[in-house]
């Protein structure tokens, strides 16, 4: 099967107002193989031009992030909206072309929306009365540490989970730690998760086909780099660098990959990239897997010197969606790890794209992907 390349497409509190939020009845999405992380909430919030508040707060105590959807964004040229956290340390700007789009998520439980206007020209009262900014949906994150592994072909912890925070490798295994910086947490449609990573030096990201398939999906996917704990075993995390997915370049269901670009590539180049291993994986080859299991800050499975039989190639001819398409292993993963790189300790190159669980877990062979994606990389 040759790769297909789709055509690019493009507290909840209000001042002096009581608003009734309603969870969307369709919030429970069909089983896509992605990890569910949050909830969708339907709202009806309007920021006016001539009357009404021009700054509103969306607060959801305990939420790990708040993400807003613009149902209406009709403004005069030069006017814009910001969505920020209360301290203003995370802020994103939007103009009228963001109408109907999701805003970038705000880390934490509160997002502030504010309209920024030029001085109103005289005689435009009627025109201004028809302008407004409306928020019609909110996605709030309900993250949890250590989500239980599911049955069947979901990602799985095999025995005792020996994966640890990526930062724990900083001194004892600096190569693995450095390589882990090339991975990213993918927040898809506001409430679902996978893992992706930079493949090659160009503006190229890869994840599973069951995570996203089209440019329209990539366009609404947040790509978080440097989402990791600040210290080993701690709970404080570094401020992630967030960019949007952009264009899908190639995707394939049988080999379960999607290659895509990001908008704002220059801001994530510093995190480095990984390379696909063109050699056929061998049984017993030692591995490590940087990932975002259950959407957690970056973790790595496969400690240096770990007992043989856990994070190593178990079967280099494992059957995935096609005979002999996969490599199997017992490296620990969890929901949200889909799309993670499985890296050889001998070469520090990617020998598999993780996508299945069940102990053994498995990933699509890197040498097969290298052949299929050569023209794109």
TrEMBL record:
Record-linked InterPro entries: Peptidase_S1_PA, Peptidase_S1_PA_chymotrypsin
Chain segments annotated as coiled-coil in the UniProt record: none
Basic and acidic residues compositional bias, start-end: 10-25
Renumbered residue ranges of the record's region Disordered: 1-35
One Pfam family hit: Trypsin_2
Protein name: Trypsin-like peptidase
SUPFAM superfamilies tied to this protein: Trypsin-like serine proteases
